[in-house]
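Quality-control log, excerpt.
Job 1 of 2 completed; input and output follow.
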Amino acid sequence: PMYGYIYHEYVNNFMGNQICMALDSTDYSYTYRLAYSFACGDMFTIVLNNDYQIVDAWCLSKTINKDVALKFIKNLSLWRNKDKEFLHYGKMIKPLNYSSNIKEFVHEDGTILSDKAVLTVAFSFSNEIRQYFINYTLEEQTIILDKEFEYYIDPISKEINKDKIIKIKPLSVVAIRRKK
């Protein structure tokens, strides 16, 4: 997300109508696009068909599981609202490395896109850095960091845990924090 990396402090883009992200119709292709948009700092877009069902894109007829889509959007929006110093006003910076499972998607032309099952993005604001890990899959995922960090799984209570192996529930986010 180069545009967001450079201009995040000054713009609030939107996810788009998803007509150019022609991934296969796996259960997690739509949630992947939501997670990617969250990491870019974009607002979410929901494309509806004539029957008011959520669909992959204007030009595609595959309907999306409404409960899954809305649950994930609700979780991501909660973070955007409660951690807005970072997610709205922060400066996007290079995230720390981590290990995660890999998911594969097939493009319309048959080429394969491989990406981590947990996406990440980092922002600095004031004297702190927050790095968000976004599990877009329908299964719990584990990430492994190089060292222990304080992290929290709920932007409201901000209950702090500390570890370098972090389990992330399906369709959810955790954030680590560190000083600049």
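Job 2 of 2 completed; input and output follow.
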Amino acid sequence: WLATHGRLAQHRVLGPIGLLLAGMVIASALGVIPANIENAQNPEPPPFFPPAFFYGISFVDLIIAVGFTVSVVMAMVNVKRPRDHAFWMISTALWALSPGLVRLLAFGMIFTVGVEGLSLIDFVFVATFPIVAAIVVLMIRMRRAHPALLLALGGNLLAFLTAWLGDNETWRAIANAVFL
């Protein structure tokens, strides 16, 4: 917004601050994965937090962290091409949206009507629909399937596989070996 409204100097000052924040986002996302794998080891998990959620969401979080990182790097590489720079910056928000939206929906339900019979996997599934829809609408409105948006779309579609990934023995073995 700053760059397109004649405030390029401010935009250039805030860029390095944004890069620092992006590094923090990436570090925190990668830091959550080992904790999720540890939580999956609970011998008597509560129904709302099945082990499949922790394993599946760890894989999705890993892809989100990589996708977010790629988007930040590509935004820096394309700093001299404002349109491409903007697409890559927009995609960083689309990568980061999923974890926050899942928490918002889950906490909203927990504190209002309860979550009897549901698990966090259900919330991941529900939260993915509006994000995917937003990306598709953005591509339609822009009349362009920019690589940044295609990458974000692919990463967000992966969230639909959280349950399958969480039950996948190969991924569980890899996650246990790497993160425990």
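Post-run check on job 2. The first helix runs from residue 8 to 39.
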